[in-house]
Amino acid sequence: MATLCVYCSSSDDIADRYPPIARALGTELAHRGHRLIYGGGRVGLMGVTARAVHDAGGHVTGVIPEKLKAREGIAYEFADEMVVTDTMAERKEAMYTRADAFVVLPGGYGTLEEFLEVLTLRQLDYHRRPIALVNTDGFYDPLLRFFDRLYDAKFARVDAETHVHVAPSPEEALDAIENGLPADVSS
Ligand code: AMP
Fold it and tell me: Which of 78, 127, 147, 164 is deepest in the core (most CB within 10 A)?
């Protein structure tokens, strides 16, 4: 059993095709016996993921800064565990420290920031934990093209796909993650 950190959108205004991706990830993650750690919100794909994990009998840990928790209606009230931090930076650190692997769903600036941080830390060898990017319907293709440009122009030392499993579906993202987990976590 692994603790998987999921980064994803906090928006409720996105198109109808995105929530099913989060729902599939949450359901499959729980069916495979993994635990979720995430930003603790009930909004957007974050809430969809957490509810799907619970509906499938899984365990949910949220990590939320006091300021966001205090904002009415943002925190997911049914989390099995809710870690409340003073700052956003402490929140990211708590998610990062407890995670065995990272899964990135479609999202906005917050998701990109979280993703790029774990990718940067991976590149610098601060960790060797698997990172999967769920690229259903090519959502992240423009970003991947930009990563190629960074690499071709030698702004990036390695090709992003050396460190990131780009998966066409949540199920394939979980397959890739499980293949990359150390034996003591995956068993
Ligand atoms: P975004 O992609 O900009 O919607 O930001 C989502 C990511 O940033 C999530 O993975 C969260 O960890 C964090 N985040 C942003 N907004 C919120 C919020 N309202 N509640 C909880 N976490 C949030």
Answer: 164
Q: Are the CB atoms for 104 and 138 separated by under 8 Å?
A: no
Task: List pLDDT tens digits, range 45-100.
Answer: 999 999 999 999 999 999 999 998 888 678 999 999 999 999 999 999 999 999 99
- Answer yes or no: is the C-beta of 107 below 6 A from any ligand 1 atom: yes
Residue numbers of the domain that contains 70: 3-177
Structural domain total, the chain: 1
User: Which residue CA neighbors atom 20 of ligand 1 most closely?
Assistant: 41
Instruction: Read off φ and ψ for residue 84, nearest 5 degrees.
Output: -105, 125
Query: Which residue, by CA, sits nearest to atom 8 of ligand 1?
Result: 110
From CA 91, how far away is CA 87, in angstroms rounded? 6
Is residue 82 situated within a structural domain?
yes
Q: What is the pTM of this model?
A: 0.95
Lookup: tokens for 154: 């030698």
Task: Give the whole-angstrom CA distance, residue 62 versus residue 78.
Answer: 10
Q: List the beta bridge partners of residue 38.
A: 6, 62
- pLDDT value of position 182: 83
CA 115 to centroid of ligand 1, rounded, Å: 12
